[in-house]
TrEMBL record:
<feature type="domain" description="UspA">
    <location>
        <begin position="204"/>
        <end position="285"/>
    </location>
</feature>
<protein>
    <submittedName>
        <fullName>Universal stress protein</fullName>
    </submittedName>
</protein>
<dbReference type="InterPro" id="IPR006016">
    <property type="entry name" value="UspA"/>
</dbReference>
<dbReference type="InterPro" id="IPR006015">
    <property type="entry name" value="Universal_stress_UspA"/>
</dbReference>
<comment type="similarity">
    <text>Belongs to the universal stress protein A family.</text>
</comment>
<dbReference type="Pfam" id="PF00582">
    <property type="entry name" value="Usp"/>
</dbReference>
Length: 286
C-alpha cells in the first residue's frame, strides 16, 4: 500500500515533533501529500457535556479558556511550519502533478474525534503522536477518531523516532481479520525492512501453523527473511513489547481490538497496554 495522502493531526504538544519526523521518513520516497490538521473542540462542548458541565462560567474564565486554546493552536501551527520549512516541503492546497513532497495546513473548530474521522477517511494513513502529557487512552479523542472512525491504518508515534525505522519490523500475529488488515496496510513498510519478526503469544499449534504460512507468504512477496518468535507470557501486550525491545525493533505492526468492541470500550487488553507503554512506532488497523 502506498501512502499517497497522509493525515497528521498536530496536537500542539511536544510529541508532534516526533510524529512529523516519522512522517517525513515514511513518505520521503513516495511523493506524498501531507495534510497537517489541528482540531480544537468548541468551548461549548467543554461547558455543556464536558469537564465543566454544571459549573458557572464567568466571562473571565471563558476568556482564559479561549486564550489557552489559541496558545495550543499557535504551537501546533508553528510546529508544522517549522518542520515543513526545515524539510524543504512545498505547500500545496490542490494536486498539481508535482514530483516532490507537498503539504497543506488546516485548522478547524469541531468535535475532535468526528473531524479526524471524517478527514482521515479521504487519506491513506493517519500518523498520530501520543501526547507527552499524562496519557489516558479512553479520553484521547484524536486516537478514538483515528482508530474507530477513519477505516484507515494509524501509525502511533511515541517518543523520539527510532534510529532505524526499517531495521527490524515486528508483526504481532493472532490470525485475526484485524491483524491481516494491519499487515496489508503495512506492505510498503515491510518491503523496506531489513528483518521481519513474527510475534505470536502462547504455544497454540494452530496459531503457530498460521504464523508459518505468513512467513511463506512474505517470502513469496520477496521480503526480508522472517522468523517466528513466541512468548509464553500471560499478558500478550507485555510479551509483545519485550520481544520488540529485545529484537531492537524500529516498527511494530498489529491489529487493534481483535476482541469485541464492547469489551474494549475502555481501551482494555493488549491494545491498551501497547498505547500506554510503547516507545516504538506502532502501525495498527481496526
Amino acid at each position: 500500500m502506498t501512502y499517497r495522502v497522509v493525515l497528521v493531526p498536530v496536537l500542539g504538544d511536544p510529541a508532534d515533533t516526533a510524529a512529523l519526523a516519522i512522517t517525513g521518513t515514511l513518505v520521503g520516497q513516495m511523493r506524498s501529500h501531507i495534510v497537517g490538521l489541528h482540531v480544537r473542540s468548541p468551548i461549548s462542548m467543554a461547558v455543556s457535556g464536558g469537564m465543566f458541565e454544571g459549573a458557572y462560567m464567568s466571562p473571565d474564565i471563558l476568556t482564559s479558556l479561549e486564550d489557552a486554546r489559541q496558545t495550543v493552536a499557535a504551537a501546533a501551527r508553528d510546529s508544522f511550519r517549522r518542520w515543513q520549512e526545515a524539510s524543504g516541503i512545498e505547500m500545496a492546497a490542490a494536486p498539481g502533478g508535482s514530483a516532490t513532497l507537498s503539504a497543506e495546513w488546516n485548522e478547524v473548530e469541531a468535535a475532535v474525534s468526528t473531524e479526524i474521522g471524517s478527514r482521515g477517511r479521504t487519506t491513506d494513513l493517519v500518523v498520530l503522536a501520543r501526547s507527552s502529557r499524562e496519557y489516558s487512552a479512553p479520553t484521547d479523542d484524536a486516537l478514538h477518531g483515528a482508530l474507530f472512525y477513519t477505516g484507515r491504518p494509524v501509525l502511533l508515534v511515541s517518543g523520539a523516532p527510532p534510529a532505524d525505522l526499517f531495521g527490524t519490523a515486528v508483526v504481532a500475529w493472532n490470525d485475526s481479520r484485524e491483524a491481516a488488515h494491519a499487515l496489508a496496510a503495512a506492505w510498503s513498510l515491510l518491503g523496506r525492512a531489513k528483518r521481519i519478526v513474527i510475534f505470536i503469544s502462547g504455544e497454540d499449534d494452530a496459531l503457530r501453523r498460521s504464523a508459518d504460512r505468513l512467513v511463506t507468504h512474505l517470502a513469496w512477496r520477496g521480503y526480508a527473511a522472517a522468523t517466528v518468535v513466541s512468548d509464553a507470557s500471560q499478558d500478550a501486550g507485555v510479551g509483545l513489547l519485550a520481544v520488540a525491545n529485545r529484537e531492537g525493533a524500529g516498527l511494530i505492526v498489529m491489529g487493534a481490538y481483535s476482541h469485541s468492541r464492547l469489551r474494549h470500550l475502555v481501551f482494555g487488553g493488549v491494545t491498551s497496554h501497547i498505547f500506554k507503554n510503547t516507545t516504538i512506532p506502532v502501525l495498527m488497523a481496526h
